[in-house]
Design a protein that fits this description.
Elements (H helix, E strand, L loop, with lengths): L1 E6 L3 H10 L4 E6 L7 H5 L7 E2 L11 E4 L6 H10 L3 E5 L6 H14 L3 E4 L6 H11 L6 E10 L9 H17 L5 E7 L9 E10 L2 E10 L5 E9 L3 E5 L7 E11 L2 E11 L7 H15 L7 H20 L3 E2 L7
Parallel strand pairs: 1-2, 1-4, 2-3, 4-5, 5-6, 7-10
Antiparallel strand pairs: 7-11, 8-9, 8-15, 9-10, 11-12, 12-13, 13-14
Helix pairs in contact: 1-7, 3-4, 4-8, 5-6, 6-8
Length: 333
């Protein structure tokens, strides 16, 4: 049985614990704060598999699942890869593109699995969108639009771009099969913490079928919780609510057709796409364990993580200059 070390039992780490307990693994848990180990005890994990020093278990396990603060991702993931372990790192993989690239290259050198926690790739609705785009059901995709906002406590280890917007940067990269060529961003620090708490990103993709314009909104102020994605094509459009459990994906066969010197807006059929409910976190952790066991490359590998970080670095540069910034080339492309 695959032996897995879960590192970190914060709010999101507890969700990892719950899902890993349902997978066929021998689970070890490490958390620097001893009191945070109590939920693991209550879930049935024995004392012999709990520690406040992850180093105690590192020689015993095959893989590590990291749910730690963003600034720790690079040094810890590097340590684990160097030790020959397969690694799952929650997003963002790092806070610097150079570090993300190093981890991707190190994983290849060591022939280790490196999976990044880009959870939206594993949502059944997002997977439907990906396949529909690639099958040509939307025709030529013109626009992508996303909103990952809602009233909540802002994170202390990263601003809204690295905490929330990164979800849609990665998802849009996945849907279109490539990162954007250019990005422009506007950010605000309304709370005066030195980290942006509101961000607007404009991404320009250059695909084989033409340019695609994508926009992303992320902030911690809007009342409610928004996890919305829209795909606008010249033959079909879709609205996806990643929060919803029912009717989360709807399609619209809408067209603009010329009428003399004007255009008519024709509203066609509307459909609700039904799909089997599945928890994306469980799906991505199951995929990670499968990759560890079969050596199959993960859907969200180290290079996917690198692409998302270099886009956000370009966005940060855009905030400083007020100009659109080229994202540069991925050495793997």
């Amino acid at each position: 049985m695959t032996k897995v070390l879960l590192l970190g039992l914060g709010r999101w780490g507890l969700n990892h614990l719950r899902n890993l307990r349902g997978l066929p693994v021998e689970l070890f848990v490490a958390e620097t704060e001893s009191q945070r180990l109590e939920p693991a005890r209550k879930s049935g994990i024995s004392e012999s598999h709990l520690t406040t020093r992850y180093q105690d278990f590192l020689p015993l396990v095959d893989a590590v699942v990291m749910v730690t603060p963003a600034p720790t991702h690079y040094p810890l993931a590097r340590e684990f890869l160097e030790a020959g372990k397969d690694v799952f790192v929650e997003k963002p993989v790092t806070l610097a593109a150079s570090e993300a690239r190093h981890l991707a290259e190190l994983a290849e050198k060591k022939q280790r699995i490196l999976q990044i926690g880009h959870i939206y790739r594993f949502d059944p609705a997002a997977q439907w969108l990906r396949e529909a785009i690639r099958a040509g059901r939307f025709g030529r995709v013109r626009m992508l639009r996303g909103n990952v906002s809602g009233f909540k406590r802002p994170r202390n280890d990263s601003g809204m771009m690295f905490a929330e917007a990164i979800h849609l940067v990665d998802l849009f990269n996945d849907l279109l099969g490539q990162p954007p060529a250019r990005v422009q961003a506007i950010c605000r620090d309304f709370l005066g913490r030195g980290l942006e708490d509101a961000a607007l990103l404009s991404l320009e993709y250059q695909t084989q079928s033409g340019a695609v314009w994508a926009t992303i909104e992320a902030n911690c102020f809007l009342p409610g919780k928004f996890r919305e994605v829209m795909v606008i094509g010249n033959e079909l459009s879709a609205v996806c609510d990643l929060n919803a459990t029912k009717e989360k994906l709807k399609t619209f066969a809408n067209w603009h057709v010329p009428d003399g010197n004007e255009f008519k807006a024709i509203e066609g059929d509307r459909q609700i796409i039904e799909m089997k409910p599945e928890e994306p976190l469980k799906a991505e952790l199951h995929a990670f364990i499968d990759s560890v066991q079969t050596r199959k490359p993960p859907l969200a590998d180290g290079w996917a993580g690198y692409d998302s970080i270099r886009v956000l670095e370009a966005a940060q540069e855009s905030v400083q200059t007020g100009q659109a910034v080229k994202t540069g080339a991925n050495p793997k492309q």
